[in-house]
Amino acid sequence: MTETNNDLLRAKINGETARMQWMELQRFFASGAMIAVSEQLDLVDVAVRIAADDKQAVQQWMADGLIGKVTDAQAQSWLESNAELWAVVIKPWILVQREKMH
């Protein structure tokens, strides 16, 4: 992917990122299409790499435990706390991330 295409993709994804309540996202979790992104990573960077099919980066993040399918425990915690998450769609996935604590 050229740098210009990468910049355009990044801008598009950034514009599609939104804060959403967990209640609005639960149905995507139930369908198994939700990926949790660690607060250590930038949600847009991860989305760009997935969209660009960067298997090496994605496999490394998975091996390091930085991305993975949302667990039942995460879903329960987010439900109980009425969490607001950052979310973006990279078909067929919904990527979600807790807000970074400063």
Strand content: 15-25%
DSSP, total strands? 5
Mean pLDDT across every amino acid position: 92
Q: Can you count the helices?
A: 5
Strand arrangement in the largest pleated sheet: 1-4-5-2-3
Low-pLDDT parts are none
Distance between the first and last residues' Cα: 33 Å
Pfam family, one: DUF2288
Organism: Noviherbaspirillum saxi
InterPro entries: DUF2288 (IPR018741)
Protein name: DUF2288 domain-containing protein
Present the secondary structure layout:
Layout: H1 3-16, E1 18-21, H2 22-30, E2 34-37, H3 43-51, H4 55-63, E3 67-69, H5 72-80, E4 84-90, E5 93-98
Protein name: DUF2288 domain-containing protein
Organism: Noviherbaspirillum saxi
InterPro entries: DUF2288 (IPR018741)
Summarize this structure as a short list of keywords or feature phrases.
five-stranded mixed sheet; 102 residues; DUF2288 domain-containing protein; alpha+beta; single chain; DUF2288; 5 strands
What this model shows, in words?
There is one protein chain. The protein contains five helices and five strands, in the order H-E-H-E-H-H-E-H-E-E. With 102 residues, the chain is α+β, with helices and mostly antiparallel strands. The chain has one domain (3-98). It has helices at 3-16, 22-30, 43-51, 55-63, 72-80; strands spanning 18-21, 34-37, 67-69, 84-90, 93-98.
